[in-house]
Specification:
Layout (H helix, E strand, L loop, with lengths): L5 H7 L7 E4 L10 E4 L2 E4 L5 E16 L5 E4 L8 E2 L11 H6 L7 H8 L6 E3 L3 E18 L3
Length: about 150
Amino acid sequence: MEPLSFQEYICSLDPATLPRILRICSGVYFQGSVYEISGNECCLSTGDLLKVTAVTLQKVICEDVQTGQKTELPPTFKGLFQPSPATSPCPTPQGPSLQGSRQKGLTLHQALGQSSRQTQPLLCPSISPHALLLSPVYEAQATMHWTR
């Protein structure tokens, strides 16, 4: 299995498979990598073990690929998404399921599930006439064990 960023891993998790034990291998930590334990800020280190117990979708950042404008969508957003035909030159592995959903559209959660690791532009007329990229923001609840 190839290494994933923590963000990619959390986005790809199926909540039905929790809890999951993770070992921090290496990495560069960016925004959100600092967490608080009993009022003290800490940072993940190589070798730390995490037991991920819950993952909750907080919001989705929706970016208009033509204008660059970003919008925050709540997890309860009711609009429907469709694959963007102008930006999909070749079928993806999940092409048949996306093709079948063109008529009815995908809910926000279905659209996030379809794109898992590869971001695919989508259309949602209630947001913009242009193709959109969705970036989910999750909150992960975990317990830690230090190997130090």
